[in-house]
Each structure stands twice: as structure tokens, then as C-alpha cells.
Amino acid sequence: MPSEKPTRLEMNVNGVNRTVSADPRTPVLEVLREEFGLRGTKYGCGEGECGACTIIADGQTICACLATCGSLAEAEVTTVEGLENDPAGVRLFNSFIDNGAVQCGFCTPGFVVSAWGLLTSAKKTDADSIRDALGGNLCRCTGYTKIIEAVADAGSQQVLSPLSSRMGSVTADVCMPQRYWRPRTLAQLFSENARFAIEARFIAGGTDLMVQNEHHLGDLPLIDISSMPELSGIDETEQQVRIGATTTWSEIRYSSIVGEHFPLLSLAAAEIGGIQIQNRATIGGNIVNASPAADGLPALYVYKAEIELVSAEGRRTVPICDFITGPGRTGLRGGEMVSAVLLAKTGTAGRVV
Ligand code: FES
Ligand code: FES
Predict the structure, then answer these.
(1) Closest Cα to residue 110, out of 129, 86, 91, 92?
(2) pLDDT of 127-139, one tens digit each?
(3) pLDDT at residue 168, as a whole number
């Protein structure tokens, strides 16, 4: 009989090691608010649209409503409360007050955390960069002008934050029998997969799966592939570029390799949701979801991408035009997953002029 016992998960929240017993499929937003009492992080839409739930996980802003707490086990998590002693956080708090950028205040924590992401990165803080950085945050009181002024004031000099270099290190797999499993390597996945439900879905960023399942993952058995180094990263040879399936759209957007050889893909990456979604959503997820509205797919068709698939039986590659067979349909076989996207270098093809 599968065990229904919650799993014991550890994460570092605002500099303190915390433990929680929870179903690993629970959105981390629920854990932060209900288990840890950190209610500065808000629930707005539950779909990655409003940014009210923005937190920092391992130095990057993400939507807490779409991230499972299992995927953040051993991560370094910072909420708006954790910014009260942070140089960039304090500067932003003061600037929002001084500029009158707070009305009802519901959206404010999310805006502050997103603005923190901009101020602590090496990117510019001009008006266009601020709008881009805050593109995943909505203010129902429509205080955008004041909010942008507040961030511009706070961002007149780049601020160093000790939080931006924090990175949790994944050393253990997370498992709730027959419900959720986060293996660390492909070898572990394929050698031990008999212990898990055959109908389990793979999850990486979860930005589509959480929404498709009405904001909670219910009883869906999940195998979390987000912590496998061999599925992530961008590599090149003389002939081609290989993008691992769990590479995020942020990594693709700012990759110099992608920018040089496949500029349309860089542009597409910048159009995928807000920064919090780009930091979490993966190219493999976008392909497997096979949505007619997927922002990343047209560029992959233009570049005649090959999809690399892996299973316990081995690897194969399929052209993207054959792999996606219709809206929401692919040629994925049972037990198989997308492991990478292969793009052939073809000189000037796809140059943006
Ligand atoms: Fe709206 Fe998470 S609650 S993006
Ligand atoms: Fe009210 Fe933004 S200040 S929602």
C-alpha cells in the first residue's frame, strides 16, 4: 500500500533552517504562509500572472504559487520579510515609502522582491529595464508610475546583496512513495523507477502543470526532474548547440551562445511570462506541453530543432515537426522524457536584422 504520510522537508528560509512535514506537491506559498506564518507573500491569481507571491529561491525570483515545496527542499528561500536586513531590500522599502508607491499594499511585497532581483543583478536600471523586471507583477490600484519611480530612485546605484549569491545544494532525493519523487540522476531514475507509479508525470518548473491542475497537484503522481544536472545547461560543439530540457528560459535568454547563433530563441525567451516565470519554466516543459500558444516553439521550428528523448531503453532524436503531433499532443512514448533540444549551427540562418 502506498504511504500517505507527509514527507519531512528541510529548507533555509530567511537565513533560518526550517523543517516541515508536507506533501511535496504542496505549493511552497502554502507552506510559507500556513506553516511558517510568513504572510507577506500573497496569494493573488495562483497562476503565475500577478506576481503577488514572488519570493527568492537560490538567488532568483520565482512565483511561490507554482513551485512545489518538494522542488525547493534544501533550497535557500527568501521572502519579503527576509529583506528587512538586506541592503537592497531596505533601500527599496524606503524608496517605496518616499515615493508614495504603496496604496492598498497588496501587491507591494511582490514588487519589492522583483525589484530586488533587478537591483542585485548586473543589469541596467533604466526605465525599460525596470518595466521588464516588473512585467510579472500586477498592481490593482494601478500605481505603476510611482512604483517605477521608486525602483528608479532605489536603483540609482547597483546594490550588493549577500542573498544574491545564495545557492542551496541538492544532496538527497525527496520521496513520498507513489506520490512524489525527486531523483538526482538519470541513472537513479531509470534503475529505481519500478518503485514508482507507472502513470507518474514528469515535472520540472511546474509552471504549466500546476495551472492545468487547478492550482494544486492533487493526487497526480509526480517525478521531479528539476535537480538532475545532466538535464540542464547549454553546450556547443562546432556543429550544434545542445540545450538541456530543464534549462530555464532565463538561462536561454541571457546565454551568449544562444544569442550568437539563435537570436530568435533569445527573443522568444524574453516573451515568456514575467521574470519569475522565465526563472522557473523550462524549454523541455514548453515542448512537452505542446500548446499552440507556446512562445518558445515557433523559434524552434524556424531553427529545425531536433528533440532528444531518453528512456531506460536508450536515446533517440526526432525533428520537432514530427514530435509535436497536434495541440497538446506529442510522440512521447511511455517512460520516455525530453532530455535536450539540439540546434544545428547554420551560419546566418535566423539572423535578426
Ligand atoms: Fe499570482 Fe502567484 S499568486 S503569480
Ligand atoms: Fe494596491 Fe498595488 S497598491 S494592488
Answers:
(1) 92
(2) 999 999 999 999 9
(3) 59
